[in-house]
Design brief:
Shape: globular
Pfam family, one: RsfS
Distance between the termini: 32 Å
CATH superfamily: Beta Polymerase, domain 2
Structural class: alpha+beta
Largest sheet: 5 strands, mixed
Strand order of the largest sheet: 1-2-5-4-3
InterPro entries: Iojap/RsfS/C7orf30, NT_sf
Number of domains: 1
CATH class: Alpha Beta
Keywords: Cytoplasm, Repressor, Translation regulation
Protein name: Ribosomal silencing factor RsfS
Radius of gyration: 15 Å
CATH topology: Beta Polymerase, domain 2
Order of helices and strands: HEEHEEEHHH
Number of strands: 5
Number of helices: 5
CATH architecture: 2-Layer Sandwich
Helix content: 25-40%
Subcellular location: Cytoplasm
């Protein structure tokens, strides 16, 4: 999960969240959700996640869906399923609402710090 989340953050994915769905589903233990502003970025995030998991964890997805359209790509690694969505599709399908009763999984500081830095308005300096 950590490797996939960090890979997504490195490619500037938005709203990276993880849920423990093991009590609700028998097909996987966790979902990693993230979004991108355009189709090209969706593909770049997917490629980075696949590359990093292959290199660092010797893992390959057993199933991959949605790549042709580039709007919502699903990477199934059995224990985790990664959803990389175009931000419009993420808003429309709202997977967070569907899985809101599942416990969230904490992500590494390296992932959450990147998101916080990107959310900070430009030109605003840290007061510390």
């Amino acid at each position: 999960m950590r490797i996939a989340a960090e890979a997504a953050a490195d490619k500037l994915a938005d709203d990276i969240l993880a849920y423990d769905v093991s009590e609700q589903l028998v097909i996987t233990d966790a979902f990693l959700l993230c979004s991108a502003t355009n189709d090209r970025q969706v593909r770049a995030i997917v490629d980075e996640i696949e590359d990093r998991l292959r290199i660092e964890a010797d893992a390959k997805p057993v199933r991959r869906e949605g790549e042709r359209e580039g709007r919502w790509v699903l990477l199934d690694y059995v224990d985790i399923v990664v959803h990389v969505q175009h931000e419009e599709d993420r808003t429309f399908y709202a997977l967070e609402r569907l899985w809101k009763d599942c416990p969230s999984i904490s992500l590494p500081d390296s992932v959450t710090q990147v998101a916080a830095q990107r959310a900070r308005p430009t030109g605003v300096e840290d007061a510390s």
